[in-house]
Amino acid sequence: MSYKIKLPSEPSPVAVSGVEPACLVAAFYKFVAIDDTTALRDDLRKFCAARPIKGTILVAHEGINATVSGVESDVRALIEILNADPRFSNLAVKFSVAGSHPFRRLKVKIKREIVTLGLEETRLSAPTAHAVEPEDWNALISDPDVLVVDTRNDYEVEVGTFEGACNPRTRAFREFPDFVARQLVDNRQKKIAMFCTGGIRCEKASAYLKSEGFENVYQLSGGILRYLERVAPTDSMWRGECFVFDERVALEHGVRQGHHGLCQRCGHPVMLRDEERDAMLCASCRDDSATPSVAT
Question: What is the span of the domain harbouring residue 236?
């Protein structure tokens, strides 16, 4: 496929607290059939490499999944060329800002799945969950008859989650089917409300639940990021910050930079404290440091 690249003449500014961003960050995905993944990868790599666009773009036969950052005009030009392709004409993009590139380099890769569940039979051709807009999410998860499930990994949940949500305690998304078998299999008739960072894991998770006979499945449209963008802190049922897979580590309401870093030893997310910035360690690594070694 050949792209016709046309830079927008007047890119629309993204205003967050009235501050002009140094970097625009765009997160997007779409489940759609892609026959020639190599051509799409090469086209996107060529376009991004010609500009200071960094981040990760995953391409598979089932679709595309990406988070990229760069100068606003460049990032919007990338979205524009994708929208010009009929396969991505209605691409939903979530924007945020960063003071500098939250990625160190550009990676454009072909994968078997754009989000790894590890089950070949789970396809997105069938209808998935009922999409719930952020403005309606609080009412849904406040219903005592609704089981709220966080589909993210355990270390992400520790940084922040919705009030009353169930933590599956998975280390990777491919463990989600095991969680279903352990804790959800007897709740096929119950209303289940799921959420994740941007929505992509819920798409796969809801398709899997549907294939297992679950009927009343709901998901937060646009994920946590859209919720933090649209819902005011005073009305929010979100507690903490939202972990993201880039150097910002976590975002707070208004999709602004949060207050987390990564442990210098194990890479686990940890809340930043001024007195510990020079030796940032998670609780587990701090405990290990405090434990005296025993000579043998």
Answer: 130-240
Per-residue pLDDT reduced to its tens digit, 96-121: 999 999 999 999 999 999 999 987 65
The strands making up 23-31's β-sheet, listed across from edge to edge, are 93-98, 23-31, 63-70, 54-60, 106-110
Q: Is residue 12 part of a domain?
A: no
Q: Examine residue 91 and state whether it is found in any structural domain, yes or no.
A: yes
Torsion of CA 228, 75, 268, 270, to 10 degrees: -50
CB-CB contact of 66 with 28 (8 Å): yes
Q: What are phi and psi of 287, to 5 degrees?
A: -65, -40
CATH number, domain with residue 54: 3.30.70.100
DSSP 178: H
Q: Give the whole-number percent of the chain exceeding pLDDT 70.
A: 85
Q: Is residue 15 part of a domain?
A: no
Same-domain status, 64 and 140: no
**Residue 196 appears among annotated catalytic residues:** yes
Active-site residue identified among 196, 202, 242, 282: 196
79's enclosing H/E stretch is: helix 72-83
Query: Nearest to residue 238, comparing CAs of 102, 171, 141?
Result: 141
174 and 212 inside one domain? yes
Q: Does the global pTM surpass 0.90?
A: no
Q: Is residue 144 part of a domain?
A: yes
Q: Which of 221, 240, 259 is the last residue of a domain?
A: 240
Handedness of CA 145, 178, 158, 56 (dihedral sign): negative
CA distance 268 to 76: 32
